[in-house]
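Listing S7. Sequence submitted for prediction.
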Amino acid sequence: MSHIRKYILFSLSAVWALGEVCAQPAPRVVSQTVGSDELLLALAEPSQVAALSELANNPNYSAVAAQAAAFPRLPPGGDAESVLRHRPTLVLCADYSRTELVTQLRRAGVPVLIFDRYATLDDAFANLRRLARELGPAAEKRADTLIAEGRARVQRLKTALAGVTPKRVIAPSTYGVMAGDRTTFQDLCDYAGATNLGASLGGLHGHQPPPGEKMLTWPIDAVVLDGADLPAALAVFKKLPPYAYLAAVREGRAVRVESYQLSCVSHHRIDGYEQLARALHPEAFTAK
């Protein structure tokens, strides 16, 4: 009889535990940055998305602008009150999010997930897995699928580019800086068959002012610009020192990527790898 009683008690405990799990409310997630918007929309059920960042539907910054248009967004410079209005059970931030915002959210009892690694594709994959664990088993399966697909795309790209001579490139900016190493542009170059001269010859770390006259001697094969209109983008730099004095700029040796691809920190950065590689090495993708 004692064995039967133990079995019944064990069974009831299992039922109660299952009831507790089922009773847990579905996550309501607010994303405070574009990078976490892209992760969230890739993994979550629509009902789990409470709100996205203010830039989520801006195609200049977001890889998922069209998809994001269906969801509420935080207002510009959103404070803790504007986040809490959406009754989140989790808020996604980055290590560059305002410290006071994160502090206020935690004081309000809301869990905050802070992403602080996004320099590489492996970091992006790790972030997918990290968020998926918060969203549940279905999201974890989606993350596994996305990562497997991403690795396959990168391998196909590597195969296509095998044997090509890397193109020597720069990424100019109207903000008075140029991309060196430890940047998303460097990551693009690493996968797209390119050498970032800002890093290799300029010795730039992160985003720093361009080295002026020194650039005039650089063997630039192509200038990488963003935007929908390549001639219009190039015209800006034909009037802007020091770029106006570069032969590559004057002669129009430029290629284009989408605006968001120069700064993408999620798994969508693979889109940029592929677009830049095709622009720099069209011969590698010509059907044989």
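Caption to Listing S7: primary sequence and predicted structure tokens for the chain studied. Residues 163-285 form a domain with the Rossmann fold fold (CATH 3.40.50.1980). The two ends are 77 Å apart (CA to CA).
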